[in-house]
Each structure stands twice: as structure tokens, then as C-alpha cells.
Design goal:
The protein has helices spanning 22-49, 54-57, 80-93, 95-115, 118-129, 251-285, 297-325, 331-356, 367-377, 384-396; strands spanning 71-72, 75-76, 135-138, 154-158, 161-172, 179-187, 200-206, 212-216, 228-238, 287-288, 291-292. Helix 3 runs antiparallel to helix 4 (95-115) and helix 6 (251-285) packs antiparallel against helix 7 (297-325). The protein is globular, with a radius of gyration of 22 Å. The protein folds into three domains: 16-129, Butyryl-Coa Dehydrogenase, subunit A, domain 1 (Orthogonal Bundle), CATH 1.10.540.10; 135-249, Butyryl-CoA Dehydrogenase, subunit A, domain 2; 252-396, Up-down Bundle (Butyryl-CoA Dehydrogenase, subunit A, domain 3). The strands form three sheets. Strands 3, 4, 5, 6, 7, 8 and 9 form a seven-stranded mixed β-sheet that branches. A two-stranded antiparallel ribbon has the order 1-2. It has ten helices and eleven strands. It is α+β, with helices and mostly antiparallel strands.
Length: 403
């Protein structure tokens, strides 16, 4: 790490790059360069105006950002490590950019790939992989976030297909989605208890369908350069062919969340590295009492702790990528990495803002924006507490959910 330059070359104290293949390094470099040249120059303005640069953001399709882990159907077929490195570089730009890739690929596209019919896959996946079509993923409800089994959105079986009624919230891209993956409890099937988690099925709802009403959530203090929506379903009629035939109970959307949480565990490393580098460079330049503040013990202590925790999080993500490649990564291991790495990144962002002092609150610097974004990431795709309970159940053999 050269303290005399502002150029970004990554943060790699334990030489993890030595373990990457030439293909891994080349792909990461391409994404890093695009973010550096095209996204970072504008993100401060987009964040201030609460705008999402959709046309520009769609360009990340060229790197396999949409459904990158999927093989076939026009998707990139990246390794778990390459996918993770890509998420890291995208979130160094902004959480909203990485969230686009997560919503489109890890959630919507993976749901279609894992549970859709061949016809559904052929119709949607190639266009989504190219960024020509966008998708969203509707699971969370206003009263049922951490407890998705309590969802109240229903899909009532009729001779014409299914009728959706209910509400969803915190749904990325819903107002611009060409296709929405919606999870609802099926009512009207013989032998099916519509109140049980087993009744949950997935449905494909094209944007513009009558009764499908998305609306943008405004006045956010976090993830301002991202699109977040509510959805209301009012007797929304969809054909029988809208059902994702392979979806079977609540475990289906939770499998999609595993993919998204894996990407988050990597993505936040990019935000953390951006904050660390900003703080380190500022400490080298800012003169107080006749010398750089980086020469003072308290600042060095902060930087040393930031680097240590970031390195530990990087090693956790790298090993998780190896386990995923081998087909051995469990949802509990993914929960550990998501929770730990988000918490680590958030603490690094807070420390970076402290080192920057008063200028740390200005939009021309990155740390405060990342800090605000990470407050949301700590909550979505499973709150910090929920992931601790997932780990606690694994450790003790007793579920503490609802207790």
C-alpha cells in the first residue's frame, strides 16, 4: 500500500491476490476500471439527488453481473470467487449498484433458473442477462420482514389462473421491472393449508399487469442512489402459466436469499476498502500540530484496527467462495459471513468518517455515504439479529425464533 498516491489498487494485506488465477484478476480489473471511470465520478451527485443512473448501471451486464453464477441461457457462468470479486468492486462504487446486480441476478434470475419451466427460462433469462429486461423479487411485506412465513399476500386459484392480493415492501426495481417474481400463499388447492409456509409459491408477474401497483419509497436517508418500492396487489389476475412450477414452500425463496447474502458478504468488502483507503490517504495529507495526523497514535490505532478487521472479513469471504465452489457452503456459513462482513464494513465506515473529521460529512467524500448505505445492508437480507439466531440454532440445536 503506497501512501503517496491516490490511485486505488485494492487493499490486500494478506496477499490474497496471490491465490487468484489470471482470469480472476483480469475480470476484477475490468469491473474495477469501469467503476473507477464511469460510476465513481457521478455517484456523489446521484446520491444527493436521489437518482439511480439506470442506463449507465445496465452496462454492468457486460461483466456478467446479472445472473453471473448461472451457466447457460446467455449467462456468464462465473465461478463463486469471480462473482464475489465482482460484487466487491460494484459496491466500492455504491451499494445501490451492487444491489441492482443482486436483485436482478441473485434473486429474480436465480428464482427463474431454479424453479421456472424451460419455457420461462428461455423467455426471460437471456434478456435479463444482457440487461435488456429487468426483474424484481417480492418477498418482504410491511408486517412480515424477519418472519416471511407470516406473509399475507395470497394467490387464489380460479378457472382463469390465480388472483393476487396483498402488499410487499422494500422491493428493489419494482416500478421499472419488466418481470416481477412474487411470493404468495396459494389458496384454493385441494389439501393445501393456505396459512402454512408450505403454501408459498412463486409467480411471474409482468410489469404493467392490471392490479400490480408499484410505488417508489421516497425520503430515504440511506441507499439514495437506488430504487426501492412498495407493491400493492388488487385482484391482480395472472394466468396459470405464471406459476414457477418448481417452487415449493418457503424454502424456495430462502434458497434465492442464500445467493444474495453470499454476494453481500463480498460486496461490503468493497465499501469497507473504499472507506479505509479514503481515511488512510487523508491521514497522510492532513497536517495538525505540525505533522500528518497519521503520525499520531490514536489515528494509527484506528487504521490498524480497520485493516485488521477488513483482512479478517476478506479471508472469511475467500474461504466461503472455496466452499461454494466445492458445493459445501451451508446457509449457516453464508449467514455468518453476511452478518460479520456487514458489521465489519459498517464499523470501518464509521471510523473512516471520524478520521476525516468535519469534511467526512461532505458528499465529495465516500465514507459517510457508504456508512449510511451499510446501515440498510445490515437490515436487509436478514437482520444482524436474525443471522445471530441462525448461528445460535446451529450451535445449540434449539431454535430461538419467536421465543
Amino acid at each position: 500500500m503506497n501512501v503517496t498516491t491516490d490511485s486505488y489498487s485494492g487493499v490486500d494485506f494478506y496477499a490474497i491476490d496471490d491465490l487468484l488465477s489470471p482470469e480472476d484478476l483480469t475480470h476484477r480489473a475490468q469491473v474495477r476500471d469501469w467503476v473507477e471511470r464511469n460510476y465513481l465520478p457521478g455517484i456523489a451527485d446521484w446520491n444527493e439527488r436521489a437518482e439511480f443512473p439506470l442506463d449507465l448501471a445496465r452496462q454492468i451486464a457486460r461483466f456478467g453481473a446479472f445472473g453471473g453464477n448461472i451457466h447457460g441461457y446467455g449467462c456468464a457462468g462465473l465461478s463463486p470467487l469471480q462473482y464475489g470479486l465482482m460484487m466487491q468492486e460494484l459496491e466500492r462504487g455504491d451499494t445501490g449498484l451492487r444491489t441492482l446486480a443482486s436483485v436482478q441476478g441473485a434473486l429474480a434470475m436465480n428464482a427463474i433458473h431454479m424453479f421456472g419451466s424451460e419455457e420461462q427460462k428461455q423467455r426471460w433469462l437471456p434478456e435479463m442477462a444482457a440487461g435488456n429486461k429487468l426483474g424484481c423479487f417480492g418477498l418482504t411485506e410491511p408486517d412480515f420482514g424477519s418472519n416471511p412465513a407470516g406473509m399475507t399476500t395470497t394467490a387464489t386459484r380460479t378457472p382463469q389462473g390465480y388472483v393476487l392480493n396483498g402488499r410487499k415492501t422494500w422491493i428493489g426495481l419494482a416500478n421499472i421491472a419488466d418481470i416481477a417474481v412474487i411470493w404468495a400463499k396459494v389458496d384454493g388447492l385441494p389439501g393445501m393449508d393456505p396459512t402454512s409456509a408450505a403454501a408459498v409459491r412463486g409467480f411471474l408477474v409482468p410489469g404493467g399487469t392490471p392490479g400490480f401497483r408499484p410505488s417508489v419509497i421516497d425520503r430515504k436517508l440511506s441507499m439514495r442512489a437506488a430504487i426501492t418500492c412498495r407493491i400493492e396487489f388488487d385482484n391482480c389476475l395472472i394466468p396459470e402459466s405464471a406459476l414457477l412450477p418448481g417452487s415449493n414452500g418457503l424454502k424456495s425463496p430462502l434458497l434465492c436469499l442464500n445467493h444474495a447474502r453470499y454476494g453481500i458478504a463480498w460486496g461490503v468488502l468493497g465499501a469497507a476498502a473504499a472507506c479505509f483507503e479514503e481515511a488512510r490517504q487523508h491521514a497522510a495529507r492532513r497536517i495538525q500540530f505540525g505533522k500528518p495526523i497519521g503520525a499520531f497514535q490514536l489515528v494509527q490505532r484506528k487504521l490498524a484496527q480497520m485493516l485488521t478487521e477488513l483482512t479478517k472479513a476478506q479471508l472469511l469471504a475467500f474461504r466461503l467462495a472455496q466452499l461454494k465452489q466445492a458445493g459445501r457452503a451451508t446457509h449457516v456459513q453464508i449467514s455468518m459471513a453476511k452478518r460479520n462482513n456487514v458489521e465489519t464494513a459498517l464499523e470501518i465506515a464509521r471510523s473512516a468518517r471520524e478520521i476525516l473529521g468535519g469534511i467526512g460529512i461532505l458528499g465529495e467524500h465516500q465514507s459517510f455515504r457508504h456508512m449510511c448505505n451499510l446501515e440498510s445492508v445490515k437490515t436487509y437480507e436478514g437482520t444482524d439479529d436474525m443471522h445471530l439466531l441462525i448461528l445460535g440454532e446451529q450451535i445449540t440445536g434449539h431454535s430461538a425464533f419467536g421465543g
